[in-house]
Amino acid sequence: MIIHTLASEDLSICVLPENGGAITQGVFQGQNFLAIPPYPAVEPKFLGTENDWLAAWNGGWQPLLPNAGGQCLEGKYPQGFHGNASQTTWNVLEKSALSISLVWSDENLHSQRSININENEVSVLGSVVNLDSEPRPLIVTEHLVLGSDFLNSKITLEPVGSAQFRELEYDGSGKGTGFEPWERFQKNSWSSVTSQTPARMGVFSDISCIRVSNENYEIEISWDARNLPYLWIWEEMAYTQEQPWNGQYLALGIEPSSASDGVGLGGDSAKTLAVNEKFNWSVQLKIQKRASK
């Protein structure tokens, strides 16, 4: 596979077009901040399960579309776990030292993705158009997973604004009665992540920015909440011992999404994309050393 590197003085990322256009590595001032799996990735399996997807995951940050969450093998365009575009080949349209543009065109969908960096920021712009003769269901999620050096100390989550939150089951399905004010969960240990944090998932609504800090660095993630109104939180601190996790994965997912849960197209949180409708979204990640450090 051909790896494309974008680099400024302090920030560099690696992009892997042949595996979902993923940003597989992010380094700021010598520190890795994106998740790196403990095992070498295998070849992706078409219409695969969660275990298949995890085995082919190269880590980091990739688009999940036109599905995010569980397999959905029904309908005109069956989808594997996290969507058929998430681990297939994206073609390179343009490339420079600080940017790359990619395209995926299949299943009567046409999706473009541009990735740009500067001294301390990664910006992603995405779009998808429905070229089919019928409306179709769609879920878009930015599978942005922090890890590596960034998780070596206690993590603090600080949503910006009047956040609502809901706990999810670890399979992404809903838990409890619905969204409630973040303050309730903040008092119940959700605002911090340590080596003792159990494996868990949750979802925010009513925000468009979150700050994630460790001992030395702060990462601010912002997104277009008009089209990605939810933010999934996935925490796996080498906690799950069962296959395929084996107590080996360190991952903190901060994932803007169009869906309120991780059930996938088989659930009820997909949007409907009309014929020839274009759906756009954007996500920015800004990293900096904490002012007091």
UniProtKB/TrEMBL annotation:
One of its GO terms (molecular function) is catalytic activity. InterPro entries: Gal_mutarotase_sf_dom, GH-type_carb-bd. GO terms for biological process: carbohydrate metabolic process. This is Unannotated protein.
